[in-house]
Fold Nuclear protein SET.
Amino acid sequence: MPAWYEIIRVGKVPYGKGVFAIRTITAGETIGKVTGKVIDDPEYTSTYCIDLGDGVKSLEPRGPFRYLNHCCEPNAKLFLHETVYEDGTPGPTEVTVEALCTIEPEEEVRIDYAWDIVGAIPCLCGASQCRGWIVDPEQLPKLLKKQKKLTERDKAPQKSK
């Protein structure tokens, strides 16, 4: 696998930094391995942390993959790989970024954050199929129902005292 700096670069986007292809990246190609500090705390949160799938551990990624932005129509995805030491004991979970489709040079590499409903925020990705929220697609109906109830409550006439 080539080094990440032969495949991608970090560049400016209107809202901070993003990751961009240097060359054509083919569908299924591994773009790189995400490295960083593993945090063993279920309450830990940050702007960049990646849930390692056990509900307890998170990965606080280093650059360049720290700057992967969200898109409701992603062109890349994070994959978790369980590792095993030579003696057969479980090793640390590894995270890679892989292309879902062909990514052209200078195109931004973006993933679907698919956040839990608790952390959902409005989405401004601009994709034609944007969900309007950075949230797990399976949780979107529940979030929209919750938002509708809040809107209806806010529009209801207030009782005078």
Summary: The radius of gyration is 19 Å. The chain has one helix and twelve strands.
